Task: inverse folding
């Protein structure tokens, strides 16, 4: 009989769904804002430096 191979070193319990959704949303917003700020900085550097 073949034994199922476990992946990962630790056992994981089921996370609470509401907190994970909130955290995913917060991280997504932070990444989006960081990308916009970075893009604005690159464009400002390209167009406004002599």
Result:
């Amino acid at each position: 009989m073949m034994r199922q191979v476990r992946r990962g070193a630790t056992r994981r319990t089921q996370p609470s769904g509401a907190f994970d959704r909130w955290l995913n949303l917060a991280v997504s917003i932070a990444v989006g804002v960081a990308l916009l700020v970075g893009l604005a900085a690159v464009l400002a550097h390209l167009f406004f430096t002599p």
Remarks:
- The radius of gyration is 21 Å.
- The chain is about 65% helix and 0% strand.
- The mean pLDDT is 86.
- Helices lie at 17-48.
